[in-house]
Every structure is written in structure tokens, then in C-alpha cells.
Amino acid sequence: MDNQTMIQIYYKMLTTHFFEQRAAMLSELGVINSPLYLSCGSEGVIAAMAALAEDDVIFSGHRNAAIMVGCECEIEDMFHELLGNAHSPLGGRSGLGMYSDSEVNFYGSTLIPSSQFSVAVGCAMAKKLQGEESIVICFAGDGATCDGMFYEALNMASVYELPIIFFIENNGYAGKMKTSGVIDTENIASRANGFDVTAVVVNGSDPMEVFQAVDAAIDYVLDNRPVIIEAKTNVVYASRYGESSEYRDDKDIEAALKNTPVDKFEKYMLEKGAITPGEVSVLKEKAQEKVDEAYDRALYAAGIEIKGSEVV
Amino acid sequence: MQVGYISALRDTIKDIMLKDRASILMGMNISSGGLWGESRGLDEYVSQRRIIDTPYSIPSIIGSALGLSMSGARPIVTIKGEYLLKAADVIANKVAISDYITNNQFSSDVLIISEIDIDAQKGAQGVSIYESVFSQIHGLKVIAVSSAADVRRMVTAAYDCEGPVLVLLCTQSMDDVCEENTLPYEMGSSQILREGEDVTVITYGPAVKKVLMAADEAAEMGVSCEVIDVVCLSDIDIDLIEKSVIKTAKAVVVHDSRKNLGIASEVVSKIVESEAFFYLEDKILRVCAKDAVVPYSKDEFKLFVPSKEEILDAIVNMGK
Prior knowledge:
The complex is a heterodimer of chains A (312) and B (320).
Chain A: H1 3-28, H2 46-50, E1 57-59, H3 65-71, H4 75-83, H5 115-129, E2 136-141, H6 148-159, E3 164-170, E4 173-174, E5 177-178, H7 179-182, E6 198-203, H8 207-222, E7 227-232, H9 250-258, H10 261-272, H11 277-302, E8 306-307, E9 310-311
Parallel strand pairs in A: 1-2, 2-3, 3-7, 6-7
Antiparallel strand pairs in A: 4-5, 8-9
Helix pairs in contact in A: 1-3, 1-10, 1-11, 4-11, 5-6
Chain B: E1 2-4, H1 5-19, E2 23-27, E3 51-53, H2 58-70, E4 74-78, H3 88-95, H4 98-101, E5 111-116, H5 131-135, E6 141-145, H6 151-160, E7 165-170, E8 177-179, E9 191-194, E10 199-203, H7 208-220, E11 225-229, H8 238-248, E12 251-258, H9 263-273, E13 285-289, H10 298-304, H11 308-316
Parallel strand pairs in B: 2-3, 2-4, 4-5, 5-7, 6-7, 10-11, 10-12, 12-13
Antiparallel strand pairs in B: 1-8, 9-11
């Protein structure tokens, strides 16, 4: 991966963090009522988008901020939807959880885990029928793979030989349950065994690994052979932001917060000399500024003023 | 021109697919004639790539049809009536809301062809009488095609209109042959099947034949019925019904599906909410299937769905 791509991925990871910090604040202040499923801990998956071409199509589940930032959805529009602003491109109709943006081929998120698989399969069917040289990548969480529609999708992708990547983010928790308590396999990737589907397992916290896995899968997938990429990730906050995290060890949360994928990637880039400490500061400032401007405009559109930590 | 119910369906699908190369026919058994014979011989006219056999994965068939539509294709999906409820989640939570939640960024032109299937010895799992469930799903249009005469005009209108449509065929009419109605069907409209002066009988789908027979007999007894086929169940065209009830001052609503929260409940509510309410000379009657599990046995089934006699009885006793 060249330095430029690394810096882009790093910048998007930062943007996701700052976006989610603002979103979490809005949630804490009670400005928004919508449940928040933060990407923090799984922002390494942003690197997947860096490997895609312009015509490739992206689907996502509910933990979608990193994916949307990766797709280059407009941050301001994401805030508009979070706030339900009627005068915005999506009209405040989807919220963040069902967000879509045809401009960047982001065909949509879903609040119902696993309901994205079959739609993504249909999109891949169309690509094959229309003879397009592009692929579909469908993100989902580990919990979604417990639904029958995951297996229906794998079967259809396999029997129709479709150009699709099922990108499973395994963060170790399905809702408040440990994944190991509800899924009896170490690697969800092994679910591919019953189908004519290839699978790989990667460290989803490492953007380099994620990028390489997707990049390597693309040529294969373009040959109409579906692939599962299982990315082992973390969930830093509670599965649903604001809900009790009593089901998790405080030490785990603290440790995860101190060592998020973006922190690790920053360290890696600095050690590798791909970026200078000065550039890190500039990028952080730039990302924060971009998010804050979008945030301010969306709040203004909603007629909401926040001073300090209070809604005026 | 005389047409058979299924041959009209087959010809309509063929014509749609010849005209629109974006169209795709998908469902179980499609390459071997389809569920009802709707795709028999189609591969002589249309590329096999557009005639897709699907696995028994009902929710995913519907979901993939949405994905196809979002990508510029025009899917026509066939689903056996008894499996239709398996599709309800994806229809309600994906297909029917797609236009709204994406603010019309993507197309959701999915045509689903299924059936209302209600007969003896099919058993509780073998029938399909959940049209009121699907009619509750906002964003989905539901139409019931009661006669071979209407198959071409209604399926064509359903294909041509924007957004998802569920076309419900009537299994018990599939062997029928009759004169084809060549007038275009306006999506959402109801239709008068028989004009009359004394009682308005509102019905749809599989009950239509019985109602028309009962109306014939009522005429012999000196009661003139106006029979209205609701057709579009998801958004009942009350205007025609209202006008008719204002004229006759009496209304009977008939269907072969269960009474509790059935389509008749909505028809009655709409009449009560309309001007026609002030003209009513008697209470409105619903003659529907019993609120019970659909029986298997022929004898019990006779008691389950309304008979022609029950319908006739309701009609001739109106206003007395």
C-alpha cells in the first residue's frame, strides 16, 4: 500500500472517530432518540473501501459509520439523517441506521441484521446479467450470520456464481451476548465450507490486512466466485451506545479504548515513516474541523443550539 | 376473444419480457413451466439468462429481486401462495419501504405474482388467505385478479406502475376461460361487474364467482344487485363503492378469507366514514370465512367459507 492510500485510510478512521464522538454526545444530551451502533473498534474495515473500484457496490448492516465514511458519504448528510432533518438529501427519512447514498454506490444500511444479504445478492445477479466488471461487497456483523438468510445468500451466490464478497465483522459480541455462546465455531469463515465459497480470516483492526484481503479477493470475485472475509474486530463501547455494558469486563473496555485501531495504525505509520508527527497533528485537526463544520450546519438546520454540554 | 386464466398470464409475461429486455422472471420451477404453467415455452422467446430458477429461499428471492431492481433490472417473481408469509418480513422491511427510506434514490419496481388459494383438502398450511396482512404493508400495492378476463390488463398495469406490487391470482379460477376485457386497468381502481339497483355487493378474488351466481338467483327473486370487485386491496377505491351504496342504500361485503380484521372490515369502515353512511337503510353485513383454522375435510370446509346460499340469504334479506 502506498503512503497516500495509508494516509487516506488513516484520515477516514479519524473522521469516523470524530463523527461518532459527536453522535454519542447528541445521544447523551437526548437530542437524538435513535439507537447508536458505533464503529469504534472496527474502523479498520475502512481499508476495504480503499481496495474497491468506482462501480463496486457496498451494502452494510447497522454498525455502519466507518463503512459510510469509507465510501465517502457526506458527513453533513450523515448528521442530517441522525437528526432527522427534513431539508436534506435523504429528507430525514432513513436515520443513520438505514442510510444510503447512490452517489457513492452505497446501496444502504439496515437495522435488521441479515436483511442486507439477499438484496446484495440481487445486485450481484444484476451485475453478472448486465456483464459488468464490478463487484458487490456486503458488510454484516457476526450475529447476522445466525439468520437463515445468510445461508440462503451464500447458497444463491454459490449456485449462481456471483461477484460478491460477504464481509463479516466479528467483534465477539452478538448484541449483549458473547458470540462464542451463540455461534459454535471459532471462525465464521468456516461457514463457507458447505458452499462453493472461499473464505479468509483477517485481523479487522489492521487496515493493512483488511486492504490486502479485499484487494486479493477482487480478481477472484470478478471471476464470479463469491468470497467470505471474516474480520476479527473489537467493539469498544457497548454494542448499542448508552446501554449498560455490565455484560463486559471494564478492563476490556479500558484496554480497547487505549488501543483502538486508529491509534494502532497511527503508531504503525509513524514507525514505518509513512507519516510524520507533524502530519498526524495536521490530519487530526483537519478531520476534527471537517466533522465539526458538518455538525454545526446540521444542528443549525435542525434549529438546535448546544452550548458546552447543554441544549440551549 | 376467449382466454384461459393461465394462458393469459403466460402470454402477458411473454409480451412483457419481449418488450422490456430489463425484465427477469424468477421463482421456483420457472425453467420447467413455472408454478402454474406461466413460463411454459417461454425459453423459445426469451433468453434463458432472464428465466431464473430459484432455490426454496423465499425471503431471499424477494430480497434479491429488490437488489435487481435497484440495479436497473425489472424482476417478476412468482411465489406459491402457501409460502407467501415467509416473504412478509422482507416485503415489509425492505421492498415496500425502499422508496421512502432512500428518498427515491433507487428503484423498487418488484412485481410479485402469488395467489389466493382457498379450497377443501388443502389443509391449514396449504391455503393462502393472508391478503389482508399484505394489504397492511404501506408502500406495497396488492391486487386480486378474480377472473381470466382481467389477467392481462391487471398484470400489465402492475408491471407498468412504479414501486412494488403483489398480484394475487385466484387458484380456484385458474381453469376458467372467458371473454377477455381489453380495456386498460387503472392501477388502484375497483370495478363494477354487474349493475343493479337494490343491493351493493362488494367482493374480490375467489368469492367473485359465487357472488355473481348469487346475484343471478337474487335477480330471479326480484332483487337487483350491483356487484363491485374491489381489485386493489391495499388502498380500497371507495369512490365507486360510495356512489353505488348511495344508490342502493344497502351493502353486503363478501370474501373467502377470515372475517376478523379481513378486507371486509376496511370496506365497511370506509363506507361508514363516507357520505354513503347517511343513505344506508340497513346494517352492513359481512359474509366471510369463519374465524377458525382452515379445515381439511370437505364437509367442514363447506361450513368454513361462505356458500352461495349464505350470500344469497344476506342479499335478499337486506332491508327487511
